[in-house]
Amino acid sequence: MSMNTQGRPTRADGAALSDTPTFTGNKALQIEEALSFEIGDVARTGVDLAEPTGGAHRLGGLHRDSDIGLPGLTEPETMRHFVRLSQKNFAIDMGPFPLGSCTMKHNPRLNEKVARLPGFGDLHPLAPQSAVQGALELIDRLAFWLKELTGMPAVAMSPKAGAHGELCGMMAIKSALDARGEGSKRTRVLAPESAHGTNPATAVQCGFTVEPIPADSTGRVDLGALKEKLSDDIAGIMVTNPNTCGLFERDIRAIADAVHEAGGYFYCDGANFNAIAGKVRPGDLGIDAMHINLHKTFSTPHGGGGPGSGPTVLSDALAPFAPVPYVVHENGVFHLVETRRAAKAETSGADSMGRLTAFHGQMGMFVRALAYMMSHGVDGVRQAAEDAVLNANYVLARLKTEMTPAFDGFCMHEALFDDRFLEGTGVETIDFAKAMIDEGYHPMTMYFPLVVHGAMLIEPTESESKRELDLFCNALLSLAKRAKAGEVEPFKAAPIYAPRRRLDETAAARNPVLKWRPEAQAAE
Amino acid sequence: MSVKYTKDHEWAREDGGVYVVGISAHAAEQLGDVVFVELPEVGKTLSKGDDMAVVESVKAASDVYAPISGEIVAVNQAIADEPAKVNEDAAGAAWFVKIKPSDAGELDALMDEAAYNEFVENE
Fold first, then answer.
1. Domain range B3-101, CATH class
2. A506–B33: do the CB atoms touch at under 8 Å?
3. Gap between the Cα atoms of A194 and A223, Å rounded
4. How does the average pLDDT of chain A come out, rounded?
5. Host H or E run for residue A99
């Protein structure tokens, strides 16, 4: 035979070593990535441009003689740097991302394909309107469907995220009150204690004072208590529906009627519209303004993955005050109404609030959102909402054998638990959340809403299959059982397997290091 | 001198004609690690229940309300400089402000220590 002398055992031989430090600090493919300017230096570059020749300096002797001193990287170094950074980011493309209130649903690749078409991807916001008729038509078409789905007569497309949409809605309310001559009298805004923090922040930003709306024992607005707080100095209310406890506000019509009767406006935080899209039209509920998070309901990448977009639908009462610019379709041509004067002529005399942002909004998100809508159809949008609610209730039903739901009954698109099931175990919500990282999951939203002790808010979204949901539930049930069995240490030490262990949030908040300094200086 | 408590977990204790005001040890524990304290300006006049200060922990920001009406005559800069003190000694060294009351009778409506402890127990 021809003897192969290269044979060797392929099984590892020897004692199992763990936590042996490596020279580089890397752990196999988990690279300790330095900052780009720590990797680079002035002698390297990734581009090869010819030195400029000819042409005299026109700076009157003030031109720089020396190099600017910016560190450069080679092209492969640049690629590796950003790819490695991207791999450190947990993403919905890597695993379930049950962050409550954030709606981390799958972003279909079709959306991305369409958004990259040169006619959309390479647009410039100052291109002549005659050259971008298709893009304006897309904005107009998306606006049509947003109005259709919400049952509202108008929509401001330019707000660039949910909180920006809130600002748009509350500024519209302020403008409407000013137009009624009641701007200085109506200064109070009511918001539930479970509200997103942006609600009271927005109201204060618009010059209102904020008071809490008490919740009843079912986690919903206490209608009686709300009515007692209404008077002739009410500007409006801000209510999320479904609310941040994952519950539908059953009295919403009565709430709207009471607020309108008191002369106020109803702002609805539409962050959770994904639970009711295609099922309920906010316009039918008596809402005056509501932002729609395209990035949540209509699946455009957000968080670390991309910008938000928060078009805001407006009722007849608020529509005249909508911001410019907006798209108008006349005689087969799309054009932009770009100035307050032009808007005034359009709306027979009302004063637009003016411009909220430089241009027309997040065009890339508009394309993705419309692609999502058109590929799903009305029945698909409705089914997405139904499946989101079904998945959340499946998680709620499975987890309540070991964990404690904050409220009785069914939930909408997110399941809310409190920390009663951890009582006496020594394990707290934060430890439980960190232990989820070791199991390979992004933690749920924790300690929000504030009205629930040690809150854990889980939003599985419609994207997850039953298999994924079962794996997730089994992991959480196992953690809950281990906590109850007295295994405190692994929870307190968690995350054990992440590239970084438990970070000291308190130290970070008390002594924030906001400025990079060379190692030698930082050590001082 | 006895300490009086509000339902919102502030305390007030008389000290030479003014009232020293802070938040209860129970509140400090519930907040978690305090990382930021915003105090009012000396000379500011507040009504009972007005927003008086802000405490921020890793979990959330909370308003501290004035337990009695009056004028702020002193603030404890030490807790603004070192918020950790609130977790260490909320009932003592980590007082927030001193208030010169406009109506010391308002104190009567507040809870004494036993009543507050019972209130916390049942909360």
1. mainly beta
2. yes
3. 15
4. 92
5. none
